[in-house]
Amino acid sequence: MAWRGSNRMTAPKHPPGEVLILYGTLKPRAKGYPAWLHLSAAGTPLGPARFYGRMFDFGKYPGVQLDGDTLCHGELFQVDNPDLWPVLDAYEDVNWHLPEQGEFQRVQIDVLDDYGEPIGIKAWIYEHRMPEWTKGYPTLKSGNWPVERTPPKRRFGPSADTIDLASHRKATDAKP
Asked: By Cβ atoms counted within 10 A, which residue in 11, 47, 104, 160 is the most buried?
């Protein structure tokens, strides 16, 4: 990271092949995965990874703070196209120019095995940087954001699987 002035940073430059830990909605096959990202076109999945932290459940996505002692689950992803980093930073609300304003920060950590031992690889991870935002949110004791997450219950209206779309279209088409 390069410092500009007293409090301004710029994003690090990355060669192809640096590694990222995906632990939430960016995990392959995860509910809520932003399909427009096309991660598979910019890199290579490498398999499971572990790290210590506290994983919070914010409803639609998790956040990790690295000061905990839960062995959290993630997946390693090798970023082959460095142009992906600014896109991921924007998705994760990382603000390199004013870091105190972004919800997440990207930091490098040691990758661990299933027993919590370092495997000799460093990887980038998006850490939730606002402890005050975690008040009232549960932690995931398993340290594992589920890929097949049960969506929250709807408050109003029928569930999508009970709507007869064919009847709805006929009724809509019949209206003047």
From this structure: 104
